[in-house]
Structure formats: structure tokens, C-alpha cells
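Listing S7. Sequence submitted for prediction.
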Amino acid sequence: MDAISQLQEYRLEIENANFENLTDLEDFRIKFLGSKNILKPLFSQIKNIAPEHRKDFGQQINAVKGLAEDKYQSLLKTLSSKEIKDSFSNLDLTRPGTTEALGSQHPVSIVMQRIIDIFSRIGFSIASNREIEDEWHNFTALNTPENHPARDMTDTYYLKNDWTRMLRSQTSTVQVHVMENQNPPIRIISPGRVYRNETVSSRSHCQFHQVEGLYIDKDVSFVDLKNTLLYFAKEMYGNDVKIRLRPSYFPFTEPSAEMDVYWGLETEADYRITKGTGWLEIMGCGMVDPNVLRNCGIDPDEYSGFAFGMGIERQAMRMFGITDIRMFFENDVRFLNQFRSVNI
């Protein structure tokens, strides 16, 4: 069969092509449009065509190839629509659907958001800043003496090649940044991760989360602090919660106090986590030391304020009855799955 007759035969085959499925259509594509399609050998036969007909023959080959492309695209559209329609026609709409497995929030995230919501309702806004700090913001501006133990390498994580910078040991650093750049009145909370070089145990960890609060305005008193913390405790744990304030010392507040909530003494774990007292310390607080205000450019003769800071893990332990702080950092899915249905 000569090349012209062969080309006409291919044209008729393409024009009459019709398929019931995509598999047969793919065979058609490979035959006429693939890298080794049957039209390619016809180009090598152009030299056998009379010179005056060679150009016309080459154009005919390209026309047949274009016809094959159009046929393929048309059948592909038709068969694809048909397969989609057939797949839906086979669906059993009465069959129960499959549900995706629900994820769960980490208990620290649950408690952090709850604390933020509680303080947001009484006008506190959220402030955040960097986790790598300098000595001024982490210690000096907060009235921490040069010889204070907290500055030692045994208590603070300093950067290897820069001993003047460290991982922040408290989110009070955020309060310093705010006081340096904002005029009173100031009412903020600063949630975030902090780091301390402590021995890991069931009660403490070398990394944890804090929420610190700061309120500065004219005529702020310790009564305002106490009522704010009482409001928080009731919103967090219920109206029957028991709290107590114990005198304490922090370089950046004066007077200072620690706030405890009653955990209970019903189990052996209760005795261990509260050291046999039934009370769990959840935060430190106090009136902002005038030196701190002065360091940040605020006149202590005109303004006063209070500050507080709490560990979020301690709050989560109290809320969910968790007796070992290490469980928050072990990424045990069995532990995390318990919080799927917890509402913030």
C-alpha cells in the first residue's frame, strides 16, 4: 500500500473512532499521538512522492494528526463526564457517611485561650515580644540586682556566643517593652513561652508557658490587684474556689505576694503535688516597684500599678487534675486525645 492510500486509511479510522471507556481512548492516543505514533513513518516517505505533490502530502499528514488530536479531546471530554456521572449513579445515598477523625487542642492552648478570654472581658489587651532577650529587659529594668541568683548560668539559659543575651526567663520582659513605648494607662496581658535552667520533675520543667499581667494608672492599689485576681479565680475555677495570698518577694514588685488555690487532699497524688498542704501556688503578684516604673520612663509619683504572672501549666494541672507537668511536653497522643471534647 502506497503512502497516500495508507494516510487515507488512517483518516477514515480516526473519523470512525468511538470508544466506551478511557482505557481504549488512551490506546488511541498512543497510536496516533504518542511519541512513536504511526503517522511518523509517513514523513519519511515524502521523498517517494512526486516533487509537485510533496508539499500537499506533508500538509495532509499534519491535517490527519490535527484530526486525531481533535477526536481525542472530544472523546476525552465525553467519556470523563460519563465516568463521573456513572460514579455518582452508583452511590448509596442512604448509607451512613464516614467522618474524619477530629483533632484536639493541647491542654496548654485550651487554658491559655481561656485565660486570655477572661482578662479580655475586663479590658486587658494582649502584648507579645521576642523570646531571646538582653540583660536590660530580662533583669536590670525589672530591678533585679547584679548579684541576684537568677542571673547565674545555673538559672538562666544564656546564648553560647553572646553572654549578654539569653532565653527569656519570664514574660515580664514584654511588660518592659510596653512601658518603654506606651504611656499610661496600660492594661495588658502577655502570654508566651519562657525558659529556666531548672531540674525537670513532676512539679517543674525547664520550659513552660506564662501569662503575665500589668495594670498601670493613677491611684491603682493592692485592693485592685486582689479583686482582679479573685475575679479571675472565680471565672477560671467556679464561684466556690478557695484562694489565699501569702507575702513573698520579687525584685520588680513591692509589696509582693504569691497566690494559691486549694487543690485538695483526697489522693496520694494530691499530697505529692501540694506537698501535703492541699494548696497549689499558681502565680506571683504585687505592686509594681517604683524603680521599675522609673527605669521605663514612667513617673512613680504620678502613676502606680500592679503586676502578676502565672504558669499556664499549673493552671491546666488544676483545671484537669493532671498530676505531672512533664506530660504536657511528651507528645503522647493517648494523653492529648483526652482533650478532644474540651470547650474553651
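Caption to Listing S7: primary sequence and predicted C-alpha cells for the chain studied. The longest strand covers residues 207-217. The first helix runs from residue 3 to 15.
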